[in-house]
Design brief:
Rossmann fold; 369 residues; 7-stranded parallel beta sheet; alpha/beta
Length: 369
């Protein structure tokens, strides 16, 4: 039986984005999972055809730890005799590209899910662009999770002939029934307030401080509550964020189960991000029938093209964010009614079962099966 290795920076990415896909892949292939905290995934994939290797992989650049991770990944790919090494997330993309080459792994695949350099400038931008170009050069196949991102990469990078979007995009499709069995009873929230939801990594690039500022300006005028669901991704902003949470009585959910349930207790969704690859949480908000306010950036291009949003705002423009958020609050019932139709579009465009079939077909084709 052929062997496919899936490599991500952390177990959270595997659990959130790739769980269902891996459960299906392991019916056809042996699967090796490499990530930070990989052992924690064993309880999810009980008695499946899967091996786990726990390697510390930092999101940021740490040369000593990165070298250790590179050597360890190289060793695993070689000893496990992996047929396909498939990486996701920027850091693992570079490490696995190099490890795959050093280990002699013949088929190397990487999935781009966004570009950290899109808002950088000068030397820093040039450096990270060259890393992405190296990732493209060293891999046999490059998957991109949206057509808008593919267009952006073709415009800004060299060697982009390998770029491929499976189906209509996304990492692995979406379960249309994902919220039907969620329990929200433990939240005990007042029904009188309008709940505004943010879901994503807590970092400046996601526009979280812009949203908090808009909330501060509107909370005395409207009976609203801000819910933030996600974990802090940048320790530099940790203290400032926690102060804002306490000062404004913001509800902050960090547990995976609570994050999913937070969609069901909310009235509208807002993600004023500066950069995205696709926008998975936006699609989840559509599945939960929430009106959606997003920033007008290239990463949301497919979402905007398919009209899976209520309004857009200018990224980084706090006044524009406030203005558009207020328009939804004033006409909330109208936007709620309108958003209910979007789940049919999601089902048609990003059906999880269809995406999994396309992945299996893709793996079989590159393995010449």
């Amino acid at each position: 039986m052929k062997k496919i290795c899936i490599i991500a920076t952390n177990n959270f990415a595997i659990q959130i984005f790739l769980k269902t896909l891996i459960l299906q892949i392991c019916k056809y292939y042996k699967v090796v999972i490499i990530c930070s905290g990989a052992s924690k995934l064993k309880k999810i994939f009980i008695k499946k055809n899967i091996s786990f290797f726990d390697i510390k992989i930092e999101r940021k650049i740490h040369l000593r730890d990165d070298l250790k991770a590179l050597l360890r990944i190289t060793s695993i790919l070689k000893t496990e005799k992996v047929d396909i090494a498939h990486s996701i997330m920027p850091k693992t993309g570079l490490l696995v590209s190099l490890a795959g080459l050093l280990s002699g792994t013949k088929i190397r695949v990487h999935t781009f899910t966004g570009q950290i350099w899109c808002n950088f400038s000068f030397i820093k931008k040039f450096f990270f662009i060259k890393i992405d170009e190296l990732i493209i050069l060293l891999n046999n196949y490059i998957l991109v999770d949206s057509f808008a991102q593919k267009k952006f990469l073709k415009k800004n990078l060299n060697h982009t002939h390998k770029l491929k979007v499976l189906g209509n995009g996304s990492i692995a499709g979406f379960d249309i029934d994902m919220f039907k069995k969620k329990n929200t009873q433990k939240f005990f929230l007042s029904k009188k307030k309008i709940n505004i939801l943010f879901v994503g990594r807590i970092t400046k690039d996601k526009g979280i401080f812009d949203l908090i500022k808009a909330y501060e300006n509107l909370k005395n005028q409207y009976n609203i509550r801000l819910i933030v669901s996600g974990n802090i991704d940048d320790n530099k902003i940790k203290n400032d964020f926690i102060k804002k949470v306490k000062k404004n009585n913001i509800l902050w959910f960090k547990d995976k189960v609570d994050i999913k349930s937070s969609y069901l207790i909310s009235d509208l969704f807002c993600l004023p991000s500066y950069r995205e690859g696709f926008g998975n949480s936006v699609i989840e908000a559509n599945i939960a029938n929430l009106p959606v306010l997003i920033s007008n950036i290239y990463g949301f291009g497919d979402i905007i093209k398919n009209k899976l949003y209520s309004r857009t705002c200018i990224p980084g423009d706090r006044n524009d964010l406030k203005k558009n958020l207020e328009k939804i609050l004033i006409n909330l019932n109208y936007y709620k009614k309108k958003s209910k139709k979007n789940i049919l579009k999601v089902k048609k465009l990003y059906n999880q079962n269809e995406m999994i079939e396309k992945y299996i077909k893709f793996y079989k084709s590159i393995l010449n099966e």
